[in-house]
From TrEMBL:
The organism's place on the tree of life at top rank: Eukaryota
Xref: PANTHER family: MARINER MOS1 TRANSPOSASE-LIKE PROTEIN (PTHR46060:SF1)
InterPro entries in the cross-refs: Transposase-MT_Hybrid (IPR052709)
This protein's name: Mos1 transposase HTH domain-containing protein
Length: 140
C-alpha cells in the first residue's frame, strides 16, 4: 500500500504524546518499510510541539522547475531554424537559460543533434547503410 506523506505526518502529530521512540515503533508496525525514518519522526514531532499544525511539506527555496516551458522550446527552435550552426552557449546566453536546460530542450524535446557543426532534426538524419545504398544507386 502506498501511504501519502501527509497521513504519516498526521500520525506523528497524533502520537507525539507517546514520545519519539514510541511513535516510531507504532508507525513501523502500521507502515512497515514505508515508515519515515527516526530522524524524520523526530523532526516532525519537534515541529508539531513548537506549534505547527499543517501536515503538508512547506515549499522549499530554490529555482522552480518551470524552465523548460513551451515558450522556451519555441524560442530555442526559432533560434536553431535561423542559424543551424548556433552553439548551445550562444542559445543559453541569448535566452538567459542554463546550458543544461538548452541541451535538454535540443536533445529531448526537439530531438536534434549536431552533425558536422549543424543542428539536424532526428527525423532528417539518414542511417549510415541507407546513405551508402542511396549513394551506390545514385552513382553506379
Amino acid at each position: 500500500m502506498d501511504f501519502p506523506k501527509e497521513a504519516k505526518h498526521a500520525g506523528i502529530q497524533f502520537l507525539r504524546a507517546e514520545g519519539i521512540f514510541g511513535t516510531n515503533r507504532r508507525m513501523t508496525n502500521v507502515y512497515g518499510i514505508e515508515c519515515l525514518s527516526l530522524i524524520s519522526v523526530f523532526r516532525w514531532s519537534k515541529n508539531f510541539c513548537s506549534g505547527r499544525v499543517c501536515t503538508a511539506d512547506m515549499p522549499r527555496p530554490g529555482q522552480a522547475h518551470m524552465v523548460i516551458t513551451k515558450e522556451n522550446i519555441d524560442a530555442v527552435q526559432s533560434l536553431v531554424k535561423d542559424n543551424r550552426r548556433i552553439t548551445i552557449q550562444e542559445i543559453a546566453y541569448s535566452l538567459s537559460l542554463n546550458e543544461c536546460n538548452v541541451q535538454s530542450i535540443l536533445y529531448n524535446h526537439l530531438h536534434c543533434s549536431k552533425v558536422c557543426a549543424t543542428w539536424v532534426p532526428k527525423h532528417c538524419r539518414m542511417v549510415p547503410h541507407a546513405t551508402k545504398d542511396f549513394l551506390q544507386s545514385r552513382y553506379s
